[in-house]
Amino acid sequence: MGIDPEVYAGRPVIGIANSWSELNNCNSNLRELADAVKRGVLAAGGLPLEFPTISLGEEFMKPSAMLYRNLMAMEVEETLRANPIDGVVLLCNCDKTTPAQLMAAASADLPAIQLNGGPRTTGRWRGAEVGTGTDLWKYWDELRAGRISDEDFREIEACYGCSAGACNTMGTASTMTALSESLGMMLPGTSSIPATDARRVAAAEATGRRSVALVNEDLRPSQILTPSAFDNAIRTLHALGGSTNAVIHLIAIAGRRNIDLRLDRFDELAQTTPLLANLSPSGKHLMEAFYAAGGLPALLAEIRDLLQLDCLTVTGRPLGDSLASARSFDRDVIRPRSEPLRESGALAVVRGNLAPSGAVIKTSAASASLLKHRGPAVVFESYDDMLARVNDPALAVGRDSVLVLRNAGPKGVPGFPEWGMIPVPIKLLEQGVTDLVRISDSRMSGTGYGTVVLHVVPEAAAGGPLAFVHDGDFIELDVDKRRLELLIEPAELERRRQAWKPPTSSHVRGYPRFYIDHVLQAHEGADFDFLRPRSDADLTFIEPTVGRS
């Protein structure tokens, strides 16, 4: 490799896990950042060695990048275990790259620090800001309803993807990188720096320098990823109005440290955590405005009384130290506690005979008028069935209908894709209807919005009650009471259960088959059953490789 052993002997070996790929535009600036990380590592006396990993891009991977999150986590973990690496810098950006790397770091437990590529530049169409994903769905409905032209839509496409970087809304990418920072795995204030800002490169160099110090201090993820740190992340999720996908990812990351993070904890902390970030899709601003307003430290400073400020971070100091001088520079973007967007409950967990183990709804992006609703079900057996029929003029659907999509969960596809935001039928759009109650065992893009109940557990393909819903059955959603009920007699529900037969899968080999056989349900983080330790003793079943030993 041309490295002089006499010069570098005894120096910490810092791996740089780079999820750059030309198949993933969100991560396309990570090569530049890797070079800056190397400068930092060298300046601090370490030896940087970059290695490629799987890159999970949301736009192109089918049926979903989520199918491969666990595979990426396995790959990164095993690379760290198999090679003489003392510490690692994890380069992430697009939705699933961040949690996959954190899952790997939690399991391998080498000194680790994460750096993201940042949100993309804010584009504008005819003078108006365009938020990635969120405005795509909005303008897609406008196109379907005939209110804009194909040419208009092509112009919008060019505006909302006008630079490298992740979605510039508070979608899953920005949510997960903010949560990584709040967990203590990123340097304070770095998660929201725009992808094209020179301060992003400076943060990369600082991250490289700090990675060497982590090795010298022997500071590991097991000391940072504690139950209190996950409480802080949940509070952050609610204050941001972040993606529902974060619920699944946080549970999966915590599970790798044998921390039993349950859905009820998300709901419990929601009751006392205000929504303060006025960011799309729950609000109106984009990520550039959030960073200019002070970024995550400014938001956390507003809820410091709700946080565990003594949680250790990759700085080697407690979280509270990074908030001492933080403040909001734009009170319309990061609201004060006295003027929240919502007093509580950006997310809610609902249960009932339709979701015995729970389901999630993003209340901050839902229609208030539909949070208590009763209506007849319109059932789609699969995503293909939904695509084939949802815009059929003959579809028996009205403004009170409840759209149900099943067999779209972890096992059912497989891969747990973002199909939950079922499109409003064109004939209702033409009548001015913009939202309906929608229920599925699938997920929704963090950039999505609407009254959408997601992650219904157990999923239909695993024999959950969603599999037994018939067209015309009445369903009742009551978010205040945390209820989701199929309004049929228990005896009829049991009769349908007995008559049900599991769906057959066309996946008979390879990774998809492996995934179906081992994936856990949504409320368990959709990790693989054999990757979650069953006791603290399982956390050390293999000692991490130490490069200088």
Describe this entry's structure for a reader.
- By secondary structure, the protein is of the alpha/beta class.
- It has helices at residues 5-8, 30-43, 69-82, 97-108, 134-144, 150-160, 172-183, 198-217, 221-224, 227-240, 245-256, 263-270, 287-292, 295-302, 383-389, 426-429, 490-499, 510-518; strands spanning 13-18, 47-52, 87-92, 112-116, 123-125, 128-130, 348-352, 355-361, 372-380, 402-405, 437-440, 452-454, 474-478, 483-486.
- The protein has two domains: 5-121 and 163-323, no CATH class; 348-499, Glucose Oxidase, domain 1 (3-Layer(bba) Sandwich).
- An eight-stranded mixed β-sheet has the order 7-8-12-11-10-9-13-14. A four-stranded parallel β-sheet has the order 2-1-3-4, with helices on both faces.
- Helix 7 (172-183) runs antiparallel to helix 10.
- The longest helix is centred in the middle third of the chain and has 20 residues, at 198-217.
- The chain is globular and about 75 Å long.
Give the arrangement of secondary structure elements.
Layout: H1 5-8, E1 13-18, H2 30-43, E2 47-52, H3 69-82, E3 87-92, H4 97-108, E4 112-116, E5 123-125, E6 128-130, H5 134-144, H6 150-160, H7 172-183, H8 198-217, H9 221-224, H10 227-240, H11 245-256, H12 263-270, H13 287-292, H14 295-302, E7 348-352, E8 355-361, E9 372-380, H15 383-389, E10 402-405, H16 426-429, E11 437-440, E12 452-454, E13 474-478, E14 483-486, H17 490-499, H18 510-518
Parallel strand pairs: 1-2, 1-3, 3-4, 9-10, 10-11, 11-12
Antiparallel strand pairs: 5-6, 7-8, 8-12, 9-13, 13-14
